Amino acid sequence: MLAETVDVGDSTVGFHAQQAVEKALKVTLVLAEVELSRAHDLELLEEQVKPQASTPPQLTDLAWLTPWAATLRYDEPIPLDRAAALTTAESVCAWATDMLARTERDEAT
């Protein structure tokens, strides 16, 4: 697993965790027919998602992952909590997958 590989730097792990969370949030916005911005700001996306869908507890205070989108990709002034990044990415992706499945079921009926 990428997060457990010591040869892979925090910049790579942080970037992919941030991207997974960002894309999962954007899935929910697409399902709600909300126009997407080009923002990589997870706090902004989180605020856009909240009125559209009930959100899981893991979907709070995601701002700590935002800098890993680009800012910290090449300059890592803060350490990455790899376990938290992985857990957050997995939880938010599972939530978005469930939202997508529910939407598909609703459209099929």
Quickly describe the structure.
The protein has 3 helices and no strands. With 109 residues, it is mainly alpha-helical. The chain is globular and about 50 Å long.
Describe what you observe in this structure.
By secondary structure, the protein is an all-alpha fold. It has one domain. The protein is 52% helix and 0% strand. It has helices spanning 10-31, 42-49, 82-108. The longest helix has 27 residues, at 82-108. The radius of gyration is 14 Å and the shape is globular. The mean pLDDT is 84.
What is the domain total for the residues?
1
Q: How helical, in percent, are the residues?
A: 40-55%
Percent in strands: under 5%
Average pLDDT, all residues: 84
Give Rg in angstroms. 14 Å
- Could you say which structural class the secondary elements and strand pairing correspond to? mainly alpha
Q: Report the principal-axis shape.
A: globular
Unreliable segments of 5+ consecutive residues: none
Q: Could you tell me how far the N terminus lies from the C terminus, measured between alpha carbons in angstroms?
A: 38 Å
The total strand number stands at 0
Give the SSE string: HHH
